[in-house]
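Students often ask why we bother encoding 3D structure as a string. The short answer is that it lets us treat folding as translation between two languages. Here is a chain of 516 residues written in the first language.
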Amino acid sequence: MTWSSAFQEKLREGIFEPIIVLHVMEWPSTPGTEFYAASAPGYGFPEIIGPGLQITGSSVTPVSWRYTHGSCSVEICTDQIGLVSQSAMRGALCEILIGFTGWDIGDFEPVFAGRVQNIRGVSPNYVLDLWDCSSILNSRLNTGSYASFLDGNNNVFPNVSSSNKTTLTTQYETSHNELDVTSAAALEMPTSSSTYPGVVYVDNGTNDPFFLTYTGKSGNTLTGVTTSDILGTTRAQSTTADTVVYNAAYLAGSPAEIFIRLLVSGSGAGSSYDVYPETWGWGLPQSFIDVGDAAGVYLSMVAAAGAGTYALSYGQKDAVSNSWEWLQGWFGTLGLVPVQKHGRLTLRPVQDPNDPLVSSGVVIDDHDIAEIQEWGAYHPDAPAEYLQVKVTATGATALITPLTAPETSPVAGRLSFNNTDKIFVYGSQNVAEIMARVGLWGTNLPEYVTIRCSGMRLATLAPLDVVQLSSELLTDGRINATYTNGYDHQPCLVLKVSPDYYLGEVTLTLAAIDPL
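And here it is in the second language, the structure alphabet:
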């Protein structure tokens, strides 16, 4: 879902007079109760939203591609703050919607989604502080009893560990399509369907364990067991005396499908993506996720790599100690980053701005720029120059950038994007597509510029978009392109977007880098 053309046209208009609506959601496993408030009359909500809505944009760090949660501050004008605080409790899910005079509430668009952090101020002037919805992913919502927090049950995959296991009751042969175990109760699977199979990790005591998928259970027998080697492991005969069967999680499909299923599963809201056991997912409302945008990024990757590519399969056999770090790491090897765009969670690709996979088509010039806030020769979050970048997948020759003498110090070794645990088909095409996007960011260091722009046209941008920047205020730079030509239609990667919807300004941080 992207913002409607009518909404984007309003952002482009010179006069910008938004109507703000706060929606506190009532959602399982989160505090708070449903509540609405507005900045204008006519919607049946308390008219207590004041003239202040500032979003401190989320940001992406180049090279490591870590996403930093953004925040939002909403002015609340009331002498009865309890009306808000009893509903918008800390941790409650919220969204901020924007519309315009004469619009129905159904035509309003989300500009921010997240959770309550604080309410502060002195009557009648308060501020509601929100963190963006990526901050919710630090722990899953469907965590069961509070006592389970003591055992790390607030992380995804809490039951995937050495403590959740069973044993064989009959010998396993590699030709068998069934597996008899002492108890199948500890083994989790999405559904009794070959579309979403379960997986176990079998250790026969020979230090050569292997994965087996299965499509159903009949008592303590796993049915539909694969008769092929999977996930880079080799099946072997196993006797009842020495074989342990561990619970594991099986993720298969496109990057977009896996991403959406992980975020939605456990919500119990009837979404077609709610297919994993609740312990595998975050339990978010699907309305917090831009399904169409994530799918569009995947289709662009397939178009660049070739038909049939990016069919992923993966077995999670270890417990997770930090859900957000796991999610970023898992998709990071694919050159993908979970971000918030247009008030919704989506996946965005790391891009070569000189040859973008997905272009925003946005050109920025001095008509937009109110102030050059800062230019930097080296982005401070890219501390070292790597000698090489390496991308790997199973069954494919690794791609490694040429080893050249570094131009800066300090120097790091090799930056790796290792996908041997999730890419088993079309490896060469996938490796080439990933390298085309990530290769230049390790062996080069980007320069950056932060600009404050008038008007709301650029609020449509999100981290990892690509824009062209032209400005006579930036006469030259450090990299070859800007040193030679200055900022004249210079391709840049967006690292941060901070819109101020009442002042009518957007502040951007952009990175420029030479092609390989």
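Translate back mentally: The chain has a mean pLDDT of 93. Keep this in mind for the problem set.
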